[in-house]
Specification:
Elements (H helix, E strand, L loop, with lengths): L28 H12 L1 H19 L8 H11 L7 H18 L3
Helix pairs in contact: 1-2, 1-3, 2-3, 2-4
Length: 107
């Protein structure tokens, strides 16, 4: 079954012995896409957000297989045009990516 709400509570105090390791891109491809978007700038970040929303919506509607979410978002990040470092441009880029990928994914 699903965990209870109480099971999802995370203590703000760190546990002893907790370590942080580098992510393995093979096992965490979404993190790699996020890093690429960060490196490319605001337009790619906005495209990541918009395409992710469209891809998840397409998945929930049964129009996209779960394993295709990350590759879809990766394509959106790769295709994102340059974008000025302004919030209005970022929102426009996110909206454009959301619409483009919703259309491509049948949503």
């Amino acid at each position: 079954g699903l965990p209870t709400p109480e099971a999802r509570v995370v203590s703000p105090r760190p546990r002893r012995g907790v370590t942080f390791e580098r992510l393995d891109p093979e096992h965490h491809p979404g993190a790699t896409v996020g890093h690429r978007a960060l490196a490319r700038g605001p337009g790619a970040i906005a495209a990541l957000v918009g395409a992710d929303e469209a891809a998840v919506s397409a998945f929930l509607a049964g129009n996209l297989a779960f394993p295709e979410i990350v590759p879809t978002v990766a394509r959106a990040v790769a295709e994102a045009p340059p974008c000025e470092d302004a919030p209005d441009w970022m929102m426009e880029a996110a909206q454009t990516a959301r619409q483009r990928w919703a259309e491509r994914l049948g949503g």
